[in-house]
Design brief:
By secondary structure, this protein is of the alpha/beta class. The chain has helices spanning 17-30, 47-54, 83-89, 99-103, 109-121, 134-138, 142-153, 184-202, 222-226, 243-253, and strands at residues 5-10, 39-44, 63-66, 93-96, 125-130, 165-169, 211-214, 233-236. Bound molecules: 2-phosphoglycolic acid. 2-phosphoglycolic acid (PGA) binds next to strand 8.
Length: 257
């Protein structure tokens, strides 16, 4: 393994503050001897837990992110959380455009673009999630959908900010309880499509952008994804929400990259 790889989890709406504290304390200790020059580890808890866990987690060991963010600094946006509020906590990553935001909350690519630009201008890492639905896959539209999501979502991103852009490819049909795991070969092919769109947008600077795979990654299939040449990391849901499992998954996959 010669490149830096990424392991992250989005905790979705599952853990209370105390459960998040316990989980991250456990994960930090279990993964203590993993070389962070080799692997970046990150976790994305609920908003309510962020301030508390920021005081507990060492950012050299585990980066913290928010699951969403409004693009405006303040305003009449009831229920939203602003970049200034997240800066005040001191987290590092903003997850943007997870499939549940797009499909359950109605966000579109133009919203995601405003969030990406705002996240970058406020100094965060923007983790933009992309992926096709089953219907789009069946219609043979995956590559067009990915290109649209990337070209819109990353519109006007300045090349100087590309070291703070991460992409997660998460096919919607592969995510969650009803998800059908993708084959590693299919994921790799779509990662290569994503990388060619990024090249078209940013030329050689695109090499700075890691592309993580997510969607039903687990202890049985993680090595297969990790072995793929275009997969730079794993973004894990259910299989990461117990700290021993996530630690095991990281340790099993790391040598395969
Ligand atoms: P899953 O979730 O690993 O539970 O399928 C992935 C995700 O939504 O990021």
């Amino acid at each position: 393994m010669s490149r830096k790889v990424y392991f992250g989890t989005n905790l979705k709406m599952y853990k209370t503050i105390q459960e998040t504290v316990d989980y991250l304390a456990g994960l930090q200790s279990l993964t203590g001897n993993i070389d962070r020059d080799e692997a970046t580890i990150f976790a994305i808890p609920s908003f309510t837990a962020l301030d508390r866990v920021k005081g507990l987690v060492d950012e050299e060991r585990i980066l913290l992110g928010a699951q969403n963010m409004h693009w405006e600094e303040k305003g009449q946006f009831t229920g939203e959380v602003s970049p200034l509020m997240l800066q005040e906590i001191g987290i590092e990553i903003i997850e943007i455009g997870h499939s549940e935001r797009r499909h359950a909350m109605g966000e579109n690519d133009f919203d995601e673009n405003k969030k990406v630009l705002s996240a970058l201008s406020h100094g965060f890492i923007a983790l933009l999630c992309v992926g096709e639905t089953l219907q789009q896959k069946e219609f043979g539209l995956c590559d067009e959908v990915l290109a649209m999501q990337l070209k819109t979502g990353l519109h006007h991103v300045h090349p100087a900010d590309l070291n703070r852009v991460w992409i997660a490819y998460e096919p919607v049909w592969a995510i969650g309880d009803a998800g059908m795991p993708s084959s590693a070969a299919y994921a790799d092919e779509k990662h290569s499509v994503i990388k060619s769109v990024l090249k078209e947008l940013f030329f050689d600077e695109a090499d700075k952008i890691p592309v993580l795979y997510g969607g039903s990654v687990n202890l049985n299939n993680c090595e297969g994804f990790a072995a793929m040449p275009n997969v730079d990391g794993l973004f894990v849901g259910r299989a990461a929400w117990e700290e021993n499992n996530f630690n095991a998954l990281i340790r099993k996959s790391l040598p395969c990259f």
